[in-house]
Design goal:
The chain has 331 residues and is α/β, with parallel strands linked by helices. It folds into 2 domains: 168 residues, Quinone Oxidoreductase, Chain A, domain 1; 135 residues, Rossmann fold (3-Layer(aba) Sandwich), CATH 3.40.50.720. It is built from 10 helices and 17 strands. Strands 3, 4, 5, 8, 9, 16 and 17 form a 7-stranded mixed sheet that branches. The protein has a 6-stranded parallel sheet with strand order 12-11-10-13-14-15, with helices on both faces. The protein has a two-stranded antiparallel sheet with strand order 1-2. Helix 10 links the parallel strand 16 and strand 17. Helix 3 packs across helix 4. The radius of gyration is 20 Å and the shape is globular.
C-alpha cells in the first residue's frame, strides 16, 4: 500500500510502498479516504515526542470505509464509512489516562496510509451531515477540545468563555463546542485575520496578544470570563488569571508558548479559580463528542487539502502556523 513514512528525526515524510496491515481478532481494517495532521505529527518528526520508533506511519485522524474485520469483530462493519477514535488504552478511570495509554500514529502505525488497522471498539459511523474530508478532521483535536471545554471546564449556556490561540484545530473546536453549548465566546490570536475569521463563524470578539495590554482591553470589552480554554501557557498565563471572574475555570491542554507563570498566587485563591489539566480524552468522551457533533450539526473547519504524496509539504505548512482550521490529506 502507499503511505507517508518517517524514517528518522528531522527527516522528510517519504511517500512509498509499505506493508498492508491485517486485522487481528478484535480489529477492523479501514481503507482510508482522508487523514488529518496534528502538531503531534510535526513534533514526532522533530524528535520532540516520547517513545519514538522508526519507520513510523504517523497520523491520528482518519475517515474511511471498513474493508475487512478480524474473526471476533462484527461483520456488519464491512462497507460502513467510519471515523477513528485515536485515543488508545485510556483505561477505566475517567479522571486520567492509564500508564499504557498511547495515541494512534506512534507507536501504532497511523492513518497517513491507504489502510489502517484499529480496535473495533474505537470506530464510529461517520456523522451523516459531514463529508468524509470534514469527518477526518475532528477526532484528535475534537476530543482534546471536548474534554477541555465540556468535561473539565464544564462550560454551560450563558457563560462567557475565552479560547486562546484561535486558528489551531483544538482551539477552533473548543470555540465551536462552547458556541453550540450556548456560551458567548471571545478569542485571542497574534493574527487580526484569524480573529476576524473566528468572529465570522460566531465569536463575539477577540484580542491580538501582540498588542500591549491586550488583556485589559479584552477585560473591559467582555466583563471577564467564566471559563478559559488555553493551549498556549507561557508568560501570558498570568494575564488569563487577571481575566478570570471569581469562581472561573481554566482548562490547560498545551503549552506552545512555554512554561507559565501564574502571577500573584493570591489572585488564584482569592478568586477561587480552578486550574484544570486536560489532554485527549476517554472512550466515553469520544462517544459523547460524536453525539454532540451530530446533535448540533457542527462542521469542522478545513484549512487546506493536500494529497498523501504531499505529506511533507503539509507538515511544513502546519509548522509555519498560518492555518485557520485543520490540514487534511486526501488518500
Amino acid at each position: 500500500m502507499k503511505a507517508a513514512v518517517l524514517h528518522g528525526i528531522n527527516e522528510a515524510y517519504i511517500f512509498q510502498e509499505f506493508d498492508k496491515p491485517e486485522p487481528a481478532e478484535n480489529e477492523v481494517l479501514i481503507k482510508v479516504q482522508y487523514a488529518a495532521l496534528n502538531h503531534r505529527d510535526v513534533w514526532i518528526q522533530k524528535g520532540q515526542y516520547a517513545g519514538l520508533v522508526f519507520p513510523i506511519i504517523c497520523g491520528s485522524d482518519g475517515c474511511g470505509t471498513v474493508e475487512a474485520v478480524g474473526w471476533a469483530s462484527k461483520k456488519e462493519w464491512v462497507g460502513k464509512e467510519v471515523v477513528v477514535n485515536p485515543s488508545l488504552n485510556w483505561g477505566n478511570n475517567p479522571r486520567f489516562q492509564a500508564k499504557d495509554y498511547v495515541i494512534l500514529g506512534l507507536p501504532n502505525q497511523g492513518t497517513f496510509a491507504a489502510y489502517v488497522v484499529v480496535p473495533e471498539r474505537l470506530v464510529y459511523e461517520k456523522p451523516a451531515h459531514l463529508s468524509s474530508k470534514e469527518a477526518a478532521a475532528f477526532p484528535l483535536a475534537g476530543l482534546t477540545a471536548f474534554r477541555a471545554s465540556m468535561s473539565r471546564a464544564k462550560v454551560k449556556a450563558g457563560e462567557t468563555v475565552l479560547v486562546t490561540g484561535i486558528g489551531g484545530g483544538v482551539a477552533l473546536f473548543a470555540m465551536q463546542f462552547a458556541l453550540a453549548a450556548g456560551c458567548k465566546v471571545y478569542v485571542t490570536s497574534g493574527s487580526e485575520d484569524k480573529i476576524e475569521k473566528a468572529k465570522a463563524i460566531g465569536a463575539t470578539g477577540g484580542a491580538n496578544y501582540k498588542n500591549a495590554d491586550w488583556h485589559k482591553a479584552l477585560a473591559k470589552e467582555s466583563g471577564g470570563f467564566d471559563a478559559i480554554i488555553d493551549g498556549a501557557g507561557g508568560a501570558d498565563f498570568a494575564k488569563l488569571i487577571d481575566l478570570c471572574k471569581s469562581g472561573a475555570r481554566i482548562a490547560s491542554y498545551g503549552a506552545t508558548a512555554g512554561p507559565w507563570n501564574t502571577g500573584v498566587p493570591a489572585k488564584i485563591f482569592w478568586k477561587q479559580i480552578d486550574i484544570l489539566g486536560s489532554t485527549m480524552g476517554s472512550d466515553q468522551e469520544f462517544e459523547d463528542m460524536v453525539a454532540f457533533i451530530n446533535e448540533h450539526k457542527i462542521i469542522p473547519v478545513v484549512a487546506q487539502l493536500f494529497g498523501l504524496n504531499q505529506c511533507e509539504e503539509a507538515a511544513r505548512f502546519m509548522d509555519e502556523g498560518k492555518q485557520f482550521g485543520k490540514i487534511v490529506l486526501e488518500i
